[in-house]
Each structure stands twice: as C-alpha cells, then as structure tokens.
Amino acid sequence: MDERTTRLAELAAHGANVQEGQVVLVNAELGHEELARAVAAAAYGRGAKFVDVSYFDPHVKRARIEHADASTLEYVPPWYGDRMLRHAEEHGARINLNGVTAPNLLDDLDNARAGRDRLPRLKEYSQIVGERSTNWCIVPAPTRPWASLVFGELPEDEAYERLWSEIEHVLRLDEPDPAAAWDERMAVLKDSAQRLSDRRFDAVELRGPGTELRVGLFSTARWWAADFTTAQGLRHLPNLPSEEVFTTPDPERTDGRVTSTKPLVLQDGTIVRGLRVRFEGGKAVEIEADENVEALRSRLAVDDNGLRLGELALVDRHGRIGPLGTVFYDTLLDENAASHIAFGSGFPFLVDEHEKSRVNESDTHVDFMIGSPELEVDGVTPDGERVPVLRGGDWQV
Q: Which residue in 64, 87, 196, 169 sits closest to 136, CA to CA?
C-alpha cells in the first residue's frame, strides 16, 4: 500500500482517537477503497474490536433521482439511522472519508428532485454530534476524478499528484510528526476561541463584497476550535484539516445579506456557484445562485429550521489551506480556507443549559464560505460598542 495512504490513515485514526475495544464505523464512497482499507488497518492497530466499512455509491443515488417516484425521494430506511444511534449508544468511533468520486454526476438531472434525496447524510448525525456520544474524525480521500475537477488544466496523473501534494501539506503530513503539528496548531486555535468567548459579544457583524450581515449570539455563547471531548471525556479532532473557530448563533437574530466567496458543494457532489442569501429575523428569505440553486433550496426545505443558522465560523489567514488559493470543491477543505456560516443544526454544547433549548434544531447542516481578505469582522458588545475582530485575515482580539 502507498506509504502516503498509510500515513493519512494513521492520522485519521489519531484524529478520531480510536480506543482499544471500540467498534469503528468508516463511512466512504466507492472510489475510496484504498484509504478505507488503510484506515481499517490503522484502527485495528490501535486495538479496535471491529471495523465496519460502509460504502455509498453515488451512481445508485443518480438512478434513484432519475427513475424513482418523486414522492419517495425523501424516504430513508429507518435502520440506517438506527444503526448510527445504536453505535453511538455503545460510544464507538467514527471515521468519515471525504473526497469527490463522481464530479458533476447529477448535473443533467432536475435540481429540485436531486435536492429531495439527502443521502448520504442522515438526520441522526446532528443528534449524535450534539450529544457528543462518539469520538470521530473526517479526513479527505484523494481520488483521480477529484483531482481532474480541481486541476482540470493538468494531465490526469499530474493532477492526481498535485492533489495529493496539497492534501499532504494541509494535513501537515509533510511534518516529521503530524500529530504533534496538529496539537501545536490546535493550541493556537483554542487560544483564539477563548479570547472570543471572553469578550461575550452580543453579535458579530461581517462586511465584504456582497456581504453586510449581522449575526446575533446567545448570552452564554462559547467559541470552540475543532478539538472536541466526548461526553465521556475522550478527546478527538473531528475535522482534519481544521483552521476554524466557531460558535452557534441565536437562530432568530440574523439580518442582512451575504454572498459566497467559494463554490458550495453539497454532499451529493452538486456544485452551487454564486450563492447569495438575504436574512430577516434569523430566516433566509431570499436564496439565489448562478448555478443549481434549486438543489440547495430543496436541501434546506427538510424542516422549518433549515433556513436558519446553526454555525458561525471565523478563519484567519495563517492556516495552510487559504494561502494555496486552491478551490477544492470539497466543503471540508474549502470551509477551512475561509470564514463561513451554516444553515441548519447548531451545537447545544456551546451554550449554557438554560439556552440549549433555543439552539437551532434541524435535520440538515450546510456550510458555505463567505470569507475573503476583504472581509471585515466586528464583535458588538451588549452596550453597542463595535470591536474589530478580523482585518485582512488577522485577529484583532
């Protein structure tokens, strides 16, 4: 097996902090087989009791969207979610592999139909993350189709090597000890998150090209980096790479307009370009885009709160993804290149007990990028003072 694949798999098992005796779920797509097998080996090497690899086939999804009765497209067999919940009850580990395997596969299908089939995402994910019942990690899985999407001007082999090179860099796999390198970066991000938490801002204002947005915060809102601890006290890194600090906003207090600065790629691979959203009273009242807007609208129509925010994340310019200037067409990577917001489910563990019931609950969670060097971010104190937070990608607090 390729040595770099082995190193990536070992980092994934480290990020999830796989424990001896755990059952490990590996969620992948057809096309990720080599890395999935390496992850299984790494997990067993750490003492996993059993590794359960589940492959999603986007071509089967296409067949469903194209041929199934429209009234059945939102159906998900209940045992899909039951499996996840049972695994969470046993406090297992979970490793998800991200990476495009069939770019543009759904482009010629009806957007609205495609948006109604939300697989491979399951609504139970939000519950499991909110309850902090599993230790988990998401990592990118390089594929040749993905490389050709990102670096279409290059021959296939050269594009594939270029993608691997950049993923190794952003994952810090080019460091002698990638795990130690991530511990060092997480310490910096956690310090930034603590500084924001200590200021107790009532709201955050964001200004940039096409963006003039005010996002209200909970009175007890905390900012976190992607360095988590389960409810049982087990540390894990849910996203690798990660360069963000984030909080969960008040779902009723977002107003203004925002324009995406990078393409949004839905979980089924649909690319939404030129996204523009206007909010009133916390709800998105206008959603427009240059491409595939109906797919996004359908994805957010899952419930009443799909049009409200569950996350606000800020990204400085000192990470490894943004400076590359590469659009990866993968939310895991692109959201860590730029500040972003997310429709849908929030994070109840980021507020005190008396405010948890007001955190946004939804069966969806869709991040999109709004950050750029031109983005200015201010914190607003309870008495109305505006405090610079980000300028030119540099922290001001």
A: 87
